[in-house]
Amino acid sequence: MDFLKGKSAAVSLGVIVSCLLAVSCMAQAPQSVPAEWKQVEGAMGRAGQMQPGDVLKFSMPRSDLKVTLGEVTIKPGLALGSWVAFKRIGSEAMVMGDLVLIESEVNPVISKLQEGGISEAALHNHLIGESPRVMYLHVASQGEAAKMARAIHDALALTKTPGPSPQAASSGLLEINQKQIEQVLGKSGKVNGGILQFSVPRPEKINDDGTEIPSSMGVATAINFQPVGKNRAAITGDFVLIAREVNPVIKALRENGIKVTALHSHMLTEEPRLFFMHFWAVDDASTLARGLRSALNQISTARK
């Protein structure tokens, strides 16, 4: 009888564990794209991924570009990732994004976007000293979703941006200590194309022309680590800041040997007003993580 009780308990425990595993797997599975977005995917000519806030995002890494900066050959996930994201606003949609372009592509792309009714919000560098020089064109527009998607598709067709391809599985194996970096930053990261990536949302709501902008549409601080040898990394990304946070963060980065490579806007009508500070360094990965944590802490201090 005791044996049967034990067996019954074991079976029950097994069922519970199986259910928990199933729930975990369901939670980790990518959200399927609703039918209402299929026309947009068709116009873009590639599949998108649903993000928090009911956002459909398309990633278009510039794997065609061979960009170097000093000793580092930059991987697409470090600083060469074009993207656009769509969010429904009533019967229309908002699109925001960042197109990675070489200099000869900039004005043909701008003209094609303008022709298709897509508004631009910024054009600038994110890095200093890279070869060939890379420019970043930020778009922010509102209208009929599929029409905007077609305009963006046609603009990208003027570049050598690669078409859709099966996403390579990420091994998750890095020559840097991911767990240690996560502990220093106090954040969980993800490995994407050999790059350890972090996204740190702002605590307050961001609005643009009366619409709340989810973090997945480019208003979260981005921090990327690319291994460049055992325990060494190149870092870049951008801090998303309000005005009073700008100089405390600059000070923290420079005190930790991290270069500030750009400070500018990415949007036109956002509230509160945001500044995007890009950075670069190559050093021991844990040392860099401590410097970045110092900068993140200054954001918290400046907010008080």
Walkthrough of the structure:
By secondary structure, this protein is α+β, with helices and mostly antiparallel strands. The chain folds into 2 domains: 35-156, Alpha-Beta Plaits (2-Layer Sandwich), CATH 3.30.70; 178-303, Alpha-Beta Plaits. It has helices at residues 2-28, 38-44, 76-79, 103-115, 145-156, 178-185, 246-255, 285-303; strands at residues 49-51, 55-61, 68-69, 72-73, 81-89, 92-102, 120-124, 134-143, 190-192, 195-201, 207-208, 211-212, 220-227, 232-241, 259-264, 270-271, 275-284. The strands form 4 sheets. Strands 1-2-5-6-8-7 form a 6-stranded antiparallel β-sheet. It has a 6-stranded antiparallel β-sheet with strand order 9-10-13-14-17-15. Helix 2 (38-44) packs parallel to helix 5. The longest helix has 27 residues, at 2-28. It is globular and about 45 Å long. It starts with a helix and ends with a helix. The relative contact order is 0.13. Mean pLDDT is 90; it is low at 3-29.
List keywords for this structure.
8 helices, Alpha-Beta Plaits, 2 domains, disordered N terminus, alpha+beta, 304 residues, 17 strands, six-stranded antiparallel beta sheet
